[in-house]
């Protein structure tokens, strides 16, 4: 159909979605998905209609993180309906394949699956769609950046040199395809001992802010390493919803406010 043809050339049309924001990272394990989920939830708490698209096709974590493990989307003749929880509309390749089954597709199939999901999911009207990108700066990430009409990208990094180096690559990739980089977030920025209050800077601290300055891009904020951030995500209700008055939830809320 016409939508199929559209998909072959230029940008995908996502008509009733006003803004699409990619959450990216140069490497895996830095907390990109955790950040994407909490930011989406924080944006939703600001009164926006928010969708979350999990494009981390080799390691989709949204079903579990948002309390939808094992859930399956409803399909109609022409569309797939997103799942809903915590006020978000959510779609993930994780809803389509068993949790312990590896996705063994090669690049073109990954792109094909992502494009099909983006096209065929009936998102309805959204103020913003947050895309949890696959980690890194390979072909898939580049293609998504070129094919999806992104309003901008947010890059998550830990303060470690190696992660920051990769974050720079991500930043440069988005700049190359003329996607505005909305800013850098430092995750696992520091650790405060819940017993004695001692602050430890496990991966050093402040590197993302410095990198943002050097790369002439906004710095959006820092999120500490905290067991409640992990526990609430693992339990399917991220901290922004589980503990909205916590300082961490407020840190995500401040970043959401800056993005709004
Ligand atoms: P990525 O998407 O970059 O691979 P994830 O968001 O899946 O990373 O996070 C990796 C692991 O680290 C998860 O178990 C997650 O709960 C945990 N994690 C992420 N950010 C934090 C944080 N700020 N504090 C504590 N644990 C975190």
From TrEMBL:
Binding site for ATP: 26-33
Keyword field: 4Fe-4S, ATP-binding, Hydrolase, Iron, Iron-sulfur, Metal-binding, Nucleotide-binding, Transit peptide
GO terms for MF: 4 iron, 4 sulfur cluster binding; ATP binding; ATP hydrolysis activity; ATP-dependent FeS chaperone activity; metal ion binding
UniProt-listed GO biological process terms: iron-sulfur cluster assembly; mitochondrial respiratory chain complex I assembly
Obligatory cofactor(s): [4Fe-4S] cluster
Keyword RNA-binding: no
Self-association and partners: Homodimer.
Cited function: Binds and transfers iron-sulfur (Fe-S) clusters to target apoproteins. Can hydrolyze ATP.
Family: Belongs to the Mrp/NBP35 ATP-binding proteins family.
Protein name from the UniProt record: Iron-sulfur cluster carrier protein
Protein species of origin: Roseospirillum parvum
Record lineage: Bacteria, Pseudomonadati, Pseudomonadota, Alphaproteobacteria, Rhodospirillales
Portion of the full-length sequence here: 102 to 361 of 378
């Amino acid at each position: 159909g016409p939508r199929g043809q559209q998909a072959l050339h230029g940008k995908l049309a996502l008509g009733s979605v006003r803004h699409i924001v990619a959450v990216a990272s140069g490497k895996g394990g830095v907390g990109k998905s955790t950040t994407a989920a909490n930011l989406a939830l924080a944006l939703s708490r600001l009164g926006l209609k928010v969708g979350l698209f999990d494009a981390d096709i080799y390691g989709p974590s949204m079903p579990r993180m948002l309390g939808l493990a094992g859930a399956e989307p409803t399909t109609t003749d022409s569309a797939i309906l997103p799942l809903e929880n915590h006020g978000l509309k959510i779609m993930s390749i994780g809803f389509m394949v068993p949790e312990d089954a590896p996705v063994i597709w090669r690049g073109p199939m990954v792109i094909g699956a992502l494009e099909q999901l983006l096209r065929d999911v009936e998102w309805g009207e959204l103020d913003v769609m947050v895309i949890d990108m696959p980690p890194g700066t390979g072909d898939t990430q580049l293609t998504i950046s070129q094919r999806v009409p992104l309003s901008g990208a947010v890059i998550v990094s830990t303060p470690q040199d190696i992660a920051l180096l990769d974050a720079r690559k991500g930043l440069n990739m988005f700049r190359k395809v003329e996607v505005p980089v909305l800013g850098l977030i430092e995750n696992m920025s520091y650790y405060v001992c819940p017993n004695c209050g001692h602050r430890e800077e496990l991966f050093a601290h402040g590197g993302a802010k410095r990198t943002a300055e050097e790369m002439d891009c906004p710095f959006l904020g820092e999120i500490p390493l905290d067991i409640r951030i992990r526990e609430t995500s693992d339990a399917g209700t991220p901290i922004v919803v589980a503990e909205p008055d916590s300082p961490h939830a407020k840190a995500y809320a401040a970043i959401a406010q800056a993005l709004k």
